Amino acid sequence: MSSQHYFEAQPLAAHRPGLVRVVLPDVYLELDTDSGVFSPGRLDPGTRLLLEEAPGPPASGDILDLGCGYGPIACVLAARSPGVTVWAVDVNERALGLCARNARKAGLDNIRCVVPDAPEIPRHFAGIWSNPPVRIGKAALHDLLLSWLARLTPGAPGAPGAPGAPGAPGANRSAGPLKVTRGAAPVSERRGDYDCPFLSHPRSSLR
Ligand SMILES: C[S@@+](CC[C@H](N)C(=O)[O-])C[C@H]1O[C@@H](n2cnc3c(N)ncnc32)[C@H](O)[C@@H]1O
């Protein structure tokens, strides 16, 4: 891609259509990509890790893919749980367009692709999945994640005040803003600080 970041609102890079095949044990998707969006040439390894190892979505309710890009996480979550509404949020309009097109192509009518300040976004989410935009910088990333975590359904792990939530007693903030764990094994351990997928969901625990 050009010298621009993948999180520009309107990427200037000339269009270069591509295709990424998402091959998982339970889901197969062919997703359109383009220049000017994150990882247009392959499913990002961090995204793959999240999709392979993080707990699945609930059966219903509103869930968030924060920084959806061309839509691999949103589309897989939507395919895994037709009863949920996936709010696919991004600042990059080219990415949002691709995500919406990919949802349509895959016949997934339970994805809403919107900018972060869209008024229709629900106040609360039953879970949040993200391969977060680490390139925006640690402080900005931390603020971004905390602002969306505040919209988790009260009581969900990771919601403000919940055990292990950022800022809660004993919460580990030294290695990055958040870590996703599954059982006893931190998913993020294999990826390193800030280079980890992020998830907050009632069936996961944050450290
Ligand atoms: C690491 S990429 C992940 C993209 C996609 N989910 C994937 O797994 O391929 C992070 C995404 O976050 C988006 N982003 C950056 N800043 C954001 C913000 N403030 N709010 C929402 N999304 C943002 C970027 O445009 C980018 O698409």
Task: Describe the protein's topology.
Elements: E1 18-23, E2 28-33, H1 45-53, E3 61-66, H2 72-80, E4 84-89, H3 93-105, E5 111-114, E6 127-130, H4 138-149, E7 180-182, E8 185-186, E9 198-200, E10 205-206
Parallel strand pairs: 3-4, 3-6, 4-5
Antiparallel strand pairs: 1-2, 6-9, 7-8, 7-10
The protein binds S-adenosylmethionine (SAM).
Pick out its properties.
207 residues; alpha/beta; Rossmann fold; three-stranded antiparallel sheet; 4 helices; 10 strands; 21% helix; disordered C terminus; binds S-adenosylmethionine
Give a verbal description of the structure.
The chain is of the alpha/beta class and 207 residues long. The chain has a single domain (43-206), classed as Vaccinia Virus protein VP39 (Rossmann fold). It is built from 4 helices and 10 strands, in the order E-E-H-E-H-E-H-E-E-H-E-E-E-E. The chain has a 5-stranded mixed beta sheet. It has a 3-stranded antiparallel beta sheet with strand order 8-7-10, with no helix packed on it. It has a two-stranded antiparallel sheet with strand order 1-2. A hairpin with a 2-residue loop joins strand 7 and strand 8. The longest helix has 13 residues, at 93-105. It is globular. The relative contact order is 0.16. Residues 157-196 and 201-207 have low confidence and may be disordered. It binds S-adenosylmethionine (SAM).
**Bound heterogens, unique:** S-adenosylmethionine
CATH class placement: Alpha Beta
Number of domains: 1
CATH topology: Rossmann fold
Instruction: Calculate the terminal CA-CA distance, rounded to whole Å.
Output: 34 Å
